[in-house]
Amino acid sequence: MGSHFARKGGIAVLRFAKKALQEGLPIKVKIISSLRLGDGVPTDVRDKSYYDRDLKLLDIENVSYYNQLPNQKVIELLHRSHFQIIPSLQDIAAFSVVEGLSTATPSIGSNIGAIPEWITDNSNGYIIDLPVDENQMWKGWKEQNQLSDKVHIFEN
Asked: Which residue intervals define the domain Glycosyl transferase family in the entry (predicted)?
């Protein structure tokens, strides 16, 4: 969940869905996002075409994509989910984690911003450790944003 798709970890989730499908795992991924990407999002490569190959994964059979949903529908999806994934690269509060916890849905999230304040590792979810700076943000985001549009640092 989240409009800044790559910043909130959407690319990682799509790649996870692809891997689960390839491995024959019975995992279905539901994505809610307006897919805002590229220039104007602090963690993103400015050229949106950088994400084209990954965005094609929105159409694979184990992914359901929703552009926007009313909050009640989001809560209903969370109620029916086994867990939510938010491998965010930059996030201050990650309120979607709180929404998930309100439905007793555990979260798998990065150690960014306040996410570790909501998720207790191995209790109500799991924390993915990323290298962070003094502000508890992913160390690579400033370099990523300054990359040439032709550079691809995260290949599939």
From this structure: 48-131
